[in-house]
Amino acid sequence: MGFWTLLQVASMPVIQVLVIGLLGALLATGYCNILHADARNYLNKVVFTVFTPSLLFSILSKTVTLDDIISWWFMPVNIGLTMLFGGLLGWLVVKVLRPKPHLEGLVIATCATGNYGNLLLIVLPAICKEDGTPFGEDHATCGSVGLSYASFSAALGSIYVWTIAYQLVRNSAIKLEQLEVADELEASKLLNDVDEDANLQGSLLLEDARAPKPAAASSGWSQVVEVLHRILHELTAPPTLATIFGFLFGATAFLRNLIVGEGAPLRVIQDSIALLGDGTIPSITLILGGNLTQGLRSSNIKPWMIVGVVCVRYVFLPVIGICMVKAASGLGLLPADPLFAYVLMLHYSIPPAMNIGTMTQLFDVAQEECSVIYLWTYLFAAVALTLWSTVYLWMLS
C-alpha cells in the first residue's frame, strides 16, 4: 500500500476527532452556551462514573483472556519509557528556556505524560474501520482488540500520571506559595522602616520562606503516604475498577460464560453495559473540544515554551518511540500482533494527559498556562498524529 493511501487512512480518525471536537467548542462558546463550564463538569462526571467504566468492562470481559494479559507485559514498560524520555526532554526545555519556577513542573509534566486513555479509545476503533490497514480485514475484531489495548493503556497510564505528574504539579504549587510569601515579606520590608533587629528577623523569615518546608515538602514518609493514597484512589476510581473487573471476567472462564455469549444466562447485563459504553467516545470528544476553548482566553505564557513542549511531544519522542519499539520487536519482546506495536508507537506521539488540567485546578497553580499548552498541543496533534500514524502504518505494512 502506498504512502498517500496510508496517509488517507490515518487521517480519518483524526478528522473525526476534529469534527466532533469543533462541535464541542461551538457548543461551549457564548453563541450556544450549551456546553458551558458547569455542563462540561457534569457531563465529565457522567462519563467518568458511568460511560467509560461501561465501555472498558464490556470490551475487556469479551475480548481479553489470561494469556493476553501475560503477553502484554511490555505495555507498562513502554509507558514508563515514554514518561522517562519525555521527562528528561522536558527538563532540558526548562533548563534552556528558564520559565517561572511555578511553571517548571507543568512543562515537565506535559512533556512526560500522554493521553493514554481517552484519545486511544477514539483513534483505535476509527482506524480499524478503514480498509487497507495492516491489521487484517476483520474490522470488528480489530476494533475490539484495539479497545482492549486502549483500556489496558488507560488503566496503566492513569497510575503513572497520578504519581509522577501529580508530584510535579504539587511541587509547582509549593514553589508558587513560597514565592508569594517571599514577595510579601520583601514588600513589607520596603514599606516599613524598622530597626536592625526587625530587619534581621525579617531576613530570617524570608530565608525560611524560600527554603523547602520539611513537614510539607521534604518529608519522605509523608510523600510516600500521599503517593500511596493517590494510587489507592486511582485503583478505586470507576474506570480502573471496571478495568480490573473486566480483566477478571475475561480471564476467568466461569465468570466470562455468565455474561458473554448467546447462551449466557446474564447476557442482558453485558448488553446493557455495552449500550451505556457507546456514549463514551462522543461525550469525551465533545468535552475535549469545549475544554480547549479555555486556552483562547489566556496568553500568559511565552511562545517558546509552547514550541518546546510541541517539539518534545511531536518531534523527538516519536523518533525515540520508533527506536524503542523496533528494538523490543527485534528482541522478541512483543506479541506478533502489529496492532500492539502500533499502539506502543502511538504512546510516543499523543498530546499531553488531560488529567494535568485537573491537577492544576486541584492545587490552584498555572491553570491558564495549562489551558494554553493544551490548546496548541491538541491543535498540532491533528497534523502530527496523522503524519506519525501514517509512518507507523507504513512501517508495519
Automatic annotation (TrEMBL):
BP GO terms, sorted: auxin-activated signaling pathway; endoplasmic reticulum to cytosol auxin transport
Positions of transmembrane segments: 6-30, 42-60, 72-94, 106-127, 147-169, 240-260, 272-292, 304-327, 339-360, 372-395
Coarse class of the protein's main subcellular location: endoplasmic reticulum
A UniProt-annotated Pfam family: Mem_trans
GO cellular component: endoplasmic reticulum membrane
Membrane topology of this protein: Multi-pass membrane protein
Location(s) in or outside the cell: Endoplasmic reticulum membrane
InterPro entries: Mem_transp_PIN-like, PILS1/3/4/5/7
Keywords from the named record: Auxin signaling pathway, Endoplasmic reticulum, Membrane, Transmembrane, Transmembrane helix, Transport
Keyword Transmembrane among UniProt keywords: yes
Family the UniProt entry places it in: Belongs to the auxin efflux carrier (TC 2.A.69.2) family.
Stated role: Involved in cellular auxin homeostasis by regulating auxin metabolism. Regulates intracellular auxin accumulation at the endoplasmic reticulum and thus auxin availability for nuclear auxin signaling.
Protein's recorded name: Auxin efflux carrier family protein
